[in-house]
Design goal:
The chain is mainly α. Among the domains are: about 100 residues, no CATH class; about 140 residues; about 100 residues, no CATH class. The protein is built from 25 helices and 4 strands. It has a 4-stranded antiparallel beta sheet with strand order 1-2-3-4, with helices on one face. Helix 10 runs antiparallel to helix 11 and helix 11 packs parallel to helix 13.
Length: about 525
């Protein structure tokens, strides 16, 4: 069966129309026809889908993507038949599992009928246009519109999350094209918030799924894209001017963001970053800032607050201290954290680093020294890079060296590279000895650099590695030791210390005299008789 993938906005339109025009029984018959692979010859002709459905005989179906009411079938059924429904399910297959969509649609149809039966006799007040977002509507109304546009959207595998992200960015901004700039920019901000909220919701719904690993990866990628898009929207807009023009909408936005960001739950979206980033841009509005501080303190005062949520609230409250320039007060407040997460504070590192405020950057680097020990690899690497770049603007690199030494062995790769870069070769060798690194596991170019500088520095490195290999006491390790001894012999010759080499090799032979296989390797090398 040929699989044809129509644009997502067309698919959303069809789902709404099917839900509105079909009853559950007829829809289930259509799914049965699809399930039994009776749909074939699907083709897109203009804005219509042409397909054949082989039921009791072959019927020709035309499904109009622009006006569903103009869809038709060659069967005798008076209305929307099972064959049109079968073609619809076939079109949905590239987006998800049609059997799950069937259950969703049946539930929606049941709810619709129940609502109609229980409707009041008085006419309901109609919205001005429920299919289009309104320029002067509250942000909550925009989100209801967004939900309606993506009602029934099924995410069943990793790539569908990407499809959702791309579809939302493609279809939603256009509705505000003619709005005044201050509202249009805020509307775009809410598109990003909506996408992050839906990704978060999907993540929570699929945590117990056997495919949760793949869903989680897809959610994290999409969430990071949304965060970047959110930052892009905020950086592009005039926040102060927009707030002055639309104060009520902005106040509703900040309240909504607080409700989303302060839950402290596990999420692929870094809500705490989104919350603090936007509040940092709002620092000129003390009234709503003070209202938020009061709200945070009230939430912190609740004794039953879970530890993870309390940590989130503490970081959020400390952020307002930082906005007001009270960094010391923020540090005092942050001492209350039960599990400080280093990544939560990269927002400040990045800000001060980009502003080239090295002293402020250094203050945060020092504070992060304790929590960074438990950070993941990517965060640890970012921390080391921030330190290294900041050190270039300080009078001495002594503190950087102390930090790297205190974080060993995790900082080994950053520290060893820095020692070579600054030509501290003796410290570099001491580092390899302390970590019991064999020269066979080091880059030849690094060894050559030190050898050209002072070959004697490498002697203890080869001594240690050779004797450690012998102590493993097997034929393979003896051959490894022989390779190291050959290089060691060459180094002694280069230093014109042949007597010292002979003294060492005979002492080594005496030390391991009972290891006959090793003695044989020494004889093969013609180092002993």
């Amino acid at each position: 069966m040929l699989k044809l993938q129509i644009p997502k906005n067309r698919m959303n339109y069809l789902m709404k129309q099917v839900q509105h025009h079909y009853d559950a029984q007829q829809l289930e018959r259509g799914w049965e026809d699809y399930h039994k692979s009776r749909v074939g010859d699907i083709d897109l002709v203009g804005l219509s889908i042409h397909a054949s459905v082989a039921s009791d005989k072959v019927y020709e179906v035309v499904l109009n993507l622009e006006d569903f009411t103009q869809s038709s079938c060659s069967c005798d059924y008076n209305g929307y038949c099972q064959h049109i429904a079968a073609a619809f399910f076939s079109l949905y297959a590239p987006y998800g599992r049609p059997e799950l969509l069937l259950q969703q649609l049946k539930q929606a149809i049941h709810t619709r009928k129940k609502t109609v039966r229980g409707a009041p006799s008085t006419p309901e007040r109609k919205a001005s246009n429920p299919n289009v977002p309104q320029e002067n509507a509250a942000p909550a109304e925009w989100h209801r519109f967004f939900e309606g546009r993506f009602h029934g959207f099924s995410i069943s595998h990793q790539h569908s999350i990407e499809t959702f992200y791309e579809s939302a960015l493609e279809t939603l901004p256009g509705f505000a094209a003619s709005w005044r700039t201050s509202v249009k920019e805020l509307y775009q901000l809410h598109i990003a918030l909506f996408m992050m909220r839906k990704i978060d919701q999907f993540y929570q719904d699929t945590k117990s799924s056997y495919l949760s690993y793949y869903h989680e990866n897809g959610c994290k990628v999409a969430a990071k894209n949304c965060e970047d898009k959110f930052v892009e929207f905020v950086e592009r807009m005039d926040v102060n001017g927009s707030y002055t023009a639309e104060p009520k909408a902005w106040q509703a936005t900040m309240k909504m963001l607080g409700d989303l960001a302060l839950q402290g739950k596990d999420s692929p979206v870094d809500w705490l970053f989104i919350y603090r980033f936007l509040w940092w841009k709002m620092d000129g509005y003390e009234k709503i800032g003070q209202e938020e501080i009061t709200r945070l303190e009230q939430l912190l005062a609740k004794k039953e607050t879970l530890a993870r949520k309390k940590d989130t609230l503490i970081v959020a409250r400390a952020h307002f201290d930082i906005i007001q320039g009270n960094t010391e007060d923020a540090f005092e407040r942050l001492k209350q954290l039960s599990h400080p997460n280093a990544k939560d504070f990269f927002l400040y590192l990045n800000y001060y680093y980009n502003e080239r405020r090295w002293e402020d950057t250094l203050v945060w680097l020092r504070w992060l020294l304790t929590p960074i020990a438990a950070a993941n690899h990517d965060d640890f690497r970012a921390f080391c890079q921030y330190w290294l770049d900041t050190t270039k603007h300080l009078e001495t690199d002594g503190e950087w060296v102390q930090v790297m030494e205190s974080l060993l062995p995790r900082s080994y790769y950053y520290y060893t590279a820095y020692l070579l870069q600054t030509k501290r070769y003796r410290q570099w060798v001491d580092l390899q000895l302390a970590n019991r690194i064999s020269p066979l596991n080091l880059y030849a170019l690094e060894l050559r650099t030190i050898e050209d500088h002072d070959a004697s520095l490498l002697l203890p490195l080869y001594h240690q590695a050779a004797e450690r290999a012998v102590q493993e006491r097997n034929r393979a390790s003896y051959k490894t030791a022989t390779r190291l001894l050959k290089k060691l012999h060459a180094l002694y010759k280069q230093l014109d210390q042949a007597d010292r080499w002979e003294h060492y090799v005979y002492r080594l032979s005496d030390k391991f005299s009972r290891l006959r296989a090793f003695q044989e390797e020494l004889k093969k090398g013609k180092w002993i008789r």
